[in-house]
Design brief:
Layout (H helix, E strand, L loop, with lengths): L2 H21 L6 H21 L5 H22 L7 H20 L5
């Protein structure tokens, strides 16, 4: 399987785990807490598989950058958190940085 596919699964799993963390109420609610453990466990497993081929700095930057953007979107869409121009510009800068890192990595070696 493509290492970037594992990285994508890691990102989505981490976003899911983080979203469940919001509703777990400090790990007081059982099912969201189980979602946190499963999401984060799968995220770290898939990240570790992707690191076999993708350089650490590149993989982590992509994981954290895209994860940050997606988590912010979940916050706005699902949890009705505020969103303004400054937050939008910050996310654009993060995602732009991820793109630059990906382009400068020279592939998966």
């Amino acid at each position: 399987m493509n290492p970037y596919a594992f990285l994508a699964i890691a990102i989505l799993s981490e976003v899911f785990g983080s979203s469940m963390l919001k509703v777990s109420n400090g790990f007081k609610r059982l099912f969201p807490s189980i979602g946190v453990v499963i999401g984060m466990g799968l995220a770290f497993y898939c990240l570790s598989i992707s690191l076999i081929t993708i350089p650490l700095g590149t993989a982590y930057a992509i994981w954290s950058g895209i994860g940050t953007g997606l988590t912010a979107l979940v916050g706005v869409i699902v949890y009705k958190e505020s969103f303004n121009v400054k937050k939008f510009l910050g996310l654009v800068l993060i995602i732009g940085g991820v793109v630059v890192l990906k382009l400068s990595s020279g592939g998966t070696s």
